[in-house]
Amino acid sequence: MSKQLPQNVLVGEGTRIQGQNCFNRFFSEHSPALTIGSNCMIANAHFALGAKAQMQVGDECLLSSPMFLCEERISIGSRVVMGWNVAVMDTDFHPLDPDLRKTDAIACSPLAGGISRPAIDSAPVTIGDDVWIGPQATILKGTSIGSGSFIEPGTMVTQDVPAGSRVSGNPGRCTPLSEFQ
Questions:
Q1: pTM to 2 decimals?
Q2: Which residues are part of the catalytic machinery?
Q3: Which CATH superfamily is domain 9-180 in?
């Protein structure tokens, strides 16, 4: 288990969390902010949850070195497997408009002098049950991955994935799993 779990993290029976710095950027004020089901194995995860963020992980998941960047909501079903260095994010974290990016950079710097960060878009991410996500895949804001889907290594998921699909590429393209059987 990590050195110390934040008080607003609930972990189910039989779940193991390994790693030194899993919660260094965990700022959620919700209680609970993070709920993890039973019998999960989570190794070297990075849970970066903003003040208003909530996250949920189902039962019997295997998550190997994932990065979760959450400002709103990330929901992960049961029996999900994530290969190393998968990134799941429900926000862009910085404005897309160039002028607002400059304001944001100043607000995040030591020179901020009380300047607030501009509003940044976010949208929940939902990953269904029995999903396999290959190493170094990226799941972007506002997407939903249907149950039983297979996300190839290195894929960039930019839109919803129907249940039982195989997704590959950047941006990811869906093919029904039935075509591969």
A1: 0.89
A2: 94
A3: Hexapeptide repeat proteins (2.160.10.10)
